[in-house]
Amino acid sequence: MSARVHVHDLWKAYGGTPAACGVTFDVAAGEIFGLLGPNGAGKTTTIECMLGLRRPDRGSVRIAGIDARRRGRDMQQRIGAALQTNALQDKITPREALRLFGSFYREAEAPDALLQRFALEDRADAPFHTLSGGQRRRLALALAFVNRPEVVLLDEPTTGLDPASRRDLHRRILDMKAEGRTVLLTTHYMEEAETLCDRVAIMRRGRLVAQGAPRDLTENLGAAPSVRLETSAPLPPETFADIKGLRDLEQAGCTARFRAEAAHRALAALAERMEAAGATLVELHVRRATLEDALIEWTQNEGEAADETHGEASS
């Protein structure tokens, strides 16, 4: 598939403080791509530079085949965006907002069609200030679709929503993919990224430190499975000493939690030591590494070189 979004060597600093440092990635047609990272990692700055809301210090952005820096107005006709804040005038209604935003584009979707698509028909003529958080986010997506975009950029689209509203927006984002649209989103919810994204990029201190499919990142980039076990009697700390690959040990009474790169080997070694200590296993839980574990590995492990940019994880 051809790239619909191409970001190359994007740099942006504020008063000498870098926010985006050589950011480079492609997003294929019909793909959902996620930008992940802690607060201050540079995700929103990257999105704003792509949209033309901020001027990058250097680098290139091409969206839908258009040079975003040289032909910004043409590019904006081809994309839709829903940013973290979507405040509108208190008295404006969803129908009025869609009609107003549609007037900014050469081609626009009919308000009634968007109201139906994003389940806003019952609130079409209600003032903005009376809408719930979920209704406001659905309106933000409807406004992002008013120009029938090829590429949609979503910055934290489900922040602050209850679980039911979040699931509803997930379905609508997946519908965008089914229609062949390209979606780039930022999110703090790792389960959301695993559910929605074909690929993700993890940002740290303005740099991309890892890219790949969520499963590849968890399996190939050092995120170890976590183990929780409960025994009939507390195990002395030396029980866990010198077990290869075991780390992040926490003990509280008869319960122990840890990570292990090869959990089966660690548990085999522990079984012998538990028997020697006169303790029996009461309960055991082993959880595979998640995307959240991978994010923590890449963004909080000071042993990783912050200045390195890692390429695609092998599948």
Which keywords apply here?
315 residues; 14 strands; 31% helix; 10 helices; alpha/beta; disordered C terminus; four-stranded antiparallel sheet; six-stranded mixed sheet
Count all strands and give the number. Answer: 14
Percentage of helical residues?
25-40%
In N-to-C order, the SSE pattern is: EEEHEEHEHHHEHEHEEHEEEHEH
Radius of gyration: 23 Å
Give the distance, in angstroms, between the N- and C-terminal Cα atoms. 18 Å
Classify the secondary structure makeup into a structural class. Answer: alpha/beta
**Tally of alpha and pi helices:** 10
Oligomeric state, counting identical vs distinct chains: single chain
Strand line-up of the largest beta sheet = 6-7-8-3-9-10
Strand percent estimate: 25-35%
Q: Residue ranges: pLDDT <50 for 5 or more in a row?
A: 302-315
Set out the fold topology.
Layout lengths: L2 E12 L2 E12 L3 E5 L6 H9 L6 E6 L2 E2 L4 H5 L2 E4 L11 H9 L8 H7 L15 H12 L6 E5 L7 H16 L3 E5 L3 H7 L2 E6 L2 E6 L1 H7 L5 E6 L14 E7 L2 E6 L2 H15 L3 E7 L3 H10 L15
Q: Can you walk me through this structure?
A:
It is a single chain. This protein has ten helices and 14 strands. A hairpin with a 2-residue loop joins strand 4 and strand 5. The C terminus is likely disordered.
